[in-house]
Amino acid sequence: MTDTSAADSTTVYVVDDDAGMLESTQWLLESVGLRVEAYSDGRKFLDAVSSKGAGCVVLDVRMPGLGGLNVQEELQKRGLDLPIIFVSGHADVPIVVRAFKSGAFDFIEKPFNEQLLLDSVQQALQEHRQTSHRQQGDESTENLLETLTRRERDVFLPLAQGYTSREIAEQLDVGVKTIDLYRARVMKRLGAERLPDVTGLAIAAGLIDPLDLRARL
Hints:
It contains 10 helices and 5 strands; from the N terminus they run H-E-H-E-H-E-H-E-H-E-H-H-H-H-H. The chain is an alpha/beta fold. Helix 2 links the parallel strand 1 (10-15) and strand 2.
């Protein structure tokens, strides 16, 4: 069953200069509830593609003007990491190798099995959504940590690593009550209810290694 809520937020771009293949591919993808934008020219696709939202590209390798590999290169220059599923009726080894070395998600020979293409597209969309969510989560965590004052950040790191208030107080040469105060402020500012939540934020931000944590007593 197709997840229509997910499908509504994604776009499958189909780029193929063969009008019949373009139309049939678009129909196939739309028949399972996917949102599709079809282009018969690589340049027109590049002019229209957006960096917003999740999606993938079903891209013909050989096209007049701007070929599929050139389109792939241009997307990379623009920082657009849309997964690319190449399709081609002339898939010689050097082209396939170059496509995969440049980060292609899949390479399917024409004429292709419809279910094979559908499976590949669904996998590509799932991967791109997961990547987008991870990136958004990283940005959210970084923004949250930036709200900490310098002193709160001094307490946050050892707290996340598992040090007790007394140990942190000794490290910073202040009283234990002062550390308890800052500890409460840090947890409130970060919306953390438990110490593992603080540790999780630090790991997500890449500030500590999860394999290098002190055992909590």
